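Researcher: Please generate the 3D structure of the following complex. Treat every line as part of one assembly.
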Amino acid sequence: MSFAQHYQETLEELARVCASCGRDPREVKVIAVSKTVDAPAISAAIAAGAHDFGENRPDVLAAKVAQLPEQTWHFIGTVQSRKIPEIVACASLCTRFAREHFAKFDQAAERLGKVQDILLEVNVSGEESKSGFTPDEAIHALQLAETFPHIAVRGLMTMAPQGNLDVARECFEGLAALRDALRSQLPSEQGARFNELSMGMSEDWREAVCAGATMVRIGRALFSDSFESVQA
Ligand SMILES: *Cc1c(COP(=O)(O)O)cnc(C)c1O
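Model: Done. Output below.
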């Protein structure tokens, strides 16, 4: 199947999943995670209607943005400090960094005359192998981020443990509850823009949508012909 077919089926399934849990599919953005494919494959995805792409390596992101500048690019990789200016120059939304990166993001964004939208990655499940702030750290990270004028925290992101959809669902519900709790502690202006929940990948995006995801990050299920959903 082509990307176009995978994408169409995914959008149809998204509509069904949303109907089953009382959500509006227009509230959920599908980010096509294009980290494993080249620019011609992304051009085909654009022709099929995709606009939001996720990349996890700054150099690859920069090369693809140079070829396809009209799209919305999400940086979803882990951040290395020296790559921050490159990331900020290319990405409309970035996710995975530590407290010590905030100042550098702020400086890089100021230099480019932009405000960089970011999501805070939270390790909801507590798995040791996962990066991100603990739920307890998230409020402090958020308060610190809000002191920098050129970064805007738009919400939270997480990756669920793989292999058990019930565990994944709990993780996503935990992130949604944390977003609500943090939002209630923000001044109303910042709280109003602190909305996004980036959660759910090829295996578990359906659970994430019903838990309130506003963005799902789907790679293999869109770009790979060998991907078989565990639920298919
Ligand atoms: C690769 C990646 C995805 C997409 O994963 P699939 O399982 O291929 O859908 C989503 N989020 C992040 C952070 C990734 O690195």
